[in-house]
């Protein structure tokens, strides 16, 4: 009977071997699945991290671009305010000169340094015509003002106010979207009256008209020339600011 016990024990233990193999086999598979899952999660984490990094970089670039645009906007706003103030100063100065001429205070002296009008033109009539054109521009009637200044420059080609008339005609033309006429009037000031007080602003106006016509290179060259020819002028200061942002 004792001899049968080992055999019985063998039979009793025999089913345990496959179970043990299955247990270890299943454990290996589970470990492989865990490893695979861990790798998948790690890959997702790395992908997410890269995405977050790229997003952070894009946000930083956007902040830098916004800051740059804000700087340009502030510069343009300052430039607009400077131009508004200078235009206001021109109007005040011209009004004062016109009042002096009307009262006879300086009828014999040219208002802008040019020679007396040829052909014995009536200074009072010239002053009245000029003031009428200037009033149209003040009231925002740019097309009418341009026509009035054009008529004035033909009637008084060498008058006391002719240089100023060409300058304001250029401004009126710019407001009326007649860019070609604007550039022509501004250039006339520079060609015939380069030493007038309106010459630096006429040169800035010429650069504006060139830019509006798509001639960016010409506009840049004009701005450079402006800083060289009239370095102390307010227009040259505006030109330097523009050149610094391009």
**How many strands, what sense, and barrel or not for the largest sheet?**
none
Number of helices: 9
Average pLDDT figure: 77
- Structural class given helices, strands, pairing? mainly alpha
Would you give the CATH topology of the domain at 75-244?
A: Serine Threonine Protein Phosphatase 5, Tetratricopeptide repeat
Unreliable runs: 105-119
Please indicate the percent range of residues in DSSP E strands (runs of 2 or more). Answer: under 5%
Question: Which architecture of the domain at 75-244 does the CATH hierarchy give at level 2?
Answer: Alpha Horseshoe
DSSP helix fraction: over 70%
Please render the helix and strand layout as text.
Layout: H1 4-13, H2 16-102, H3 123-138, H4 142-155, H5 162-175, H6 179-192, H7 199-212, H8 216-229, H9 234-244
Describe, in plain words, how this protein is organized in 3D.
This protein is mostly helical. The protein has a domain of 170 residues: Serine Threonine Protein Phosphatase 5, Tetratricopeptide repeat, CATH 1.25.40.10. It contains nine helices and no strands. Helix 2 runs antiparallel to helix 3, helix 3 packs antiparallel against helix 4 and helix 7 runs antiparallel to helix 8. The termini are far apart. About 6% of the residues have low confidence.
């Amino acid at each position: 009977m004792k001899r049968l016990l080992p055999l019985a024990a063998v039979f009793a233990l025999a089913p345990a071997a496959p179970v043990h193999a299955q247990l270890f086999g299943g454990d290996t598979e589970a470990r492989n699945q865990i490893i695979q899952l861990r790798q998948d999660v790690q890959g997702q984490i790395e992908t997410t991290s890269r995405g977050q990094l790229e997003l952070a970089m894009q946000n930083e670039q956007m902040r830098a671009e916004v800051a740059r645009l804000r700087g340009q906007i502030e510069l343009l706003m300052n430039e607009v305010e400077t131009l508004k103030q200078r235009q206001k100063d021109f109007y005040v100065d011209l009004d004062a000169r016109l009042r002096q001429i009307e009262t006879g205070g300086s009828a014999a002296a040219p208002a802008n340094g040019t020679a007396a009008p040829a052909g014995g033109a009536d200074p009072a009539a010239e002053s009245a015509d000029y003031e009428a054109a200037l009033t149209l521009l003040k009231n925002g009637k740019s097309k009418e003002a341009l026509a009035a200044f054009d008529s004035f420059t033909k009637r008084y080609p060498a008058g006391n106010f002719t240089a100023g008339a060409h300058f304001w005609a250029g401004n009126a033309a710019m407001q009326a979207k007649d860019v070609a006429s604007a550039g022509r009037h501004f250039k006339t000031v520079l060609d015939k009256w380069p030493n007038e007080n309106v010459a630096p602003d006429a040169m800035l106006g010429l650069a504006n008209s060139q830019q509006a016509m798509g001639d960016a290179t010409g506009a840049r060259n004009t701005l450079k020339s402006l800083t060289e020819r009239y370095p102390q002028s307010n227009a040259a200061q505006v030109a330097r600011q523009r050149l610094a942002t391009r």
